[in-house]
Amino acid sequence: MARSLLVLSAAAGLAAAAPAAAQQAGGATQLEEIQVEGQGSARTSGDGAAGVVSNDGYVAKTTRTATKTETPVHEAPATINTVTQKQIADRNPQNLQEALYYTPGVRSGAFGFDPRFDSFFIRGVDVTYTGVFRDGLRQFSSPSGLFRLEPYGLEAISILKGPSSALYGAGASVGVIDLISKRPTDYRFGEVEVQTGSFDRKQVNFDIGGPLNEQGTVLYRLTALARDANTEMERVPDDRVFIAPAVTFRPSDATEITVLSEFLRGKTGGSAAFVNAYDASFNPTGATRTPLANGDFNDFTQDQGRIGYEFKHAFSDSVSLHQNARFSALSQREEYNGRYDTVSEAGGAGLVKEQFAALAADTYLKTDFRTGELAHTLLTGVDISLLKYSSKYALSSYDDPNAIPTPDFGSLAATPSRARQDQSLIGVYAQDELKWNAWRLTLNARYDWFDSIYKSNDVVANYNADGTIGGYDRVKDTQRQNDGKFTGRAGLSYVTAFGLTPYVGYGTSFVPNPGTVIDGTVTRPTLGEQVEAGVKYKFPDVNATINASVFNLRQDDGVVYAVVGTENRQTQLDFRSRGFEIDGAATFENGVSLQASYAYTDTKIAKPDSIKGKELTSTPKHSFSLWGGYDVQNGAAKGLSLGAGVRYTGRNFGDNDNRAVIANTARAFVDAKIAYELENLTPKLKGVKLQVNATNLLDKVEQVCSSNYCYWDEGRKVIASLKYRW
């Protein structure tokens, strides 16, 4: 995964504070690929974003993510995990990593405490840049310009496992994480909330919505948040302002358009890690307790925004046109600094400025028809995405942490570098969902054309024989990529009358990678394929489901970021991942809710030969989680809600060389929740709710290493909230 901090040649520690900086030969920054997904518009109801995702408590009923249609979750021939609105409300996650803590096969927290970015792996594959979508469209990013997620603005999160390039374009071989925004509702409601908690946290939220006219043809929703908070690390705040207006227009029964928008301004720290110790070969041997940042030059500010629409027009009961489009933009300024070691206070500082603008549009025709006894739901579509990105950075060094020289973009001695990139992706695709009695067959085919122009303008130092710098040269480089690829997907399931659905699936993926690898050559496209088989069980008379699957995934020329020598660099690996997953969710009428999962993931590197047979970094073979909640329905304790969970991560390695010195021991974390509806004390407090959440309740903090650098787990965090809903 690429991160923005750049590695100072004097110490790998500063660079490794960001898991895998996106730096190329000569210091040129590189941009990850585009991928696009689409879906139609959706009406909303009290059940959530109906048509996009519907659920009952902890149990998901439908989701568009698997097929872009309303196919029930238990019928789709693929593994689908959903974080429902009730799960979000119960656990109160503060970022995407926390929201995915209880999802099987997903590795969160591989980089310990880090409020700057969300990072995660699915089945051993890093999907931070290639697998995150928002409302059916690619969530764009650049090396240090990752969109920050605000969970309070989400209705649900839908995770589709397996290659999905045949439907969504170039992307991760292991799946799609689709973030479903809160949408306008056809009923009036409102809530306001205040929060406090660990590290001087102060936050206020509100969420209101409903019809704007008597006819109900215009609906709205406005969600907002403001936070002033510190974190467990000095000079690393967690401040945020977020607002997300949305409106739905229904001019007729056949036409609907929903406009979704967001603006977020955030501030945290550019250096959020600890100094590492090293061996004679300059390989990390573990994290110290000395903070990397050693001065006040450490602000990381970011402005991000998006606006788009979901359009649907039904020509008839069997033919409809859908279009999903979004413009997004981001601008960030990252200051960072870090000590070279724990002995001296000398270190280095850097400044990164980065911005991008992106446009994505997906248009498809949905047609329902029959051929004899076969029922078809056919999608035929085209999507286009455009991205323009630019960045510049500069470095400086210091001996006095109280007098850090500001890096200068105009000075050659400050080694400034600049990069820009234009990317375009055009894809045409078709999907046919066939139904015959209890059989369900899904077929996908797609072809993508990818074009990229990458330009860099870097400063390279010239060294004298004695090791001193004799001067600087500016080096310009232009690289062009133009590629195309066919991908496919097929899945078959059998839906029994008693709720059991066995299924099998196969899919391929294609990711055209921009930039260069260590030796300066252009990065090769990443190819992937996966075979999966599983079974789902939907209890006939109980709101509960159980799903189990086995998979065999292969990825060729997968991009991996790690500290190499003194720099975080891009490398490419061939590897395979095999495993087994089982999960269950239930919400019973007596107020009990349960969620449980177990995942076995076995990874092996095939190339290069120097690490052949090794396991992928940060990927435990065994992991499980269990969360249980109870909402008291009656009696003296009516209105009381309790919840607790445990999440276990098995032993895994801190680098692809599998060095024992930075291997991660197995560990388990405990989370908890307690809430009370105050109207049970007095009717005057109707709608008022008090809730307290704790993550890592037992404050278990151990060293965690990933991509050849070591961090510390995030400690205990407690958040108390008082909410009024009407």
Automatic annotation (TrEMBL):
Domain TonB-dependent receptor plug: 74-176
Keywords (A to Z) from UniProt: Cell outer membrane, Ion transport, Iron, Iron transport, Membrane, Receptor, Signal, TonB box, Transmembrane, Transmembrane beta strand, Transport
Any single GO CC term annotated in Swiss-Prot or TrEMBL for this entry: cell outer membrane
GO BP term, pick one: siderophore transport
Database matches in InterPro entries: Beta-barrel_TonB (IPR000531), Beta-barrel_TonB_sf (IPR036942), Plug_dom (IPR012910), Plug_dom_sf (IPR037066), TonB-dep_rcpt-like (IPR039426), TonB_sidphr_rcpt (IPR010105)
Keyword Membrane: yes
A UniProt-annotated Pfam family: TonB_dep_Rec_b-barrel
Signal peptide: 1-20
PANTHER family cross-referenced by the UniProt entry: FERRICHROME IRON RECEPTOR-RELATED, FERRICHROME OUTER MEMBRANE TRANSPORTER_PHAGE RECEPTOR
Family of this protein: Belongs to the TonB-dependent receptor family.
Name of the protein this chain belongs to: Ligand-gated channel
Source taxonomy: Bacteria, Pseudomonadati, Pseudomonadota, Alphaproteobacteria, Hyphomicrobiales
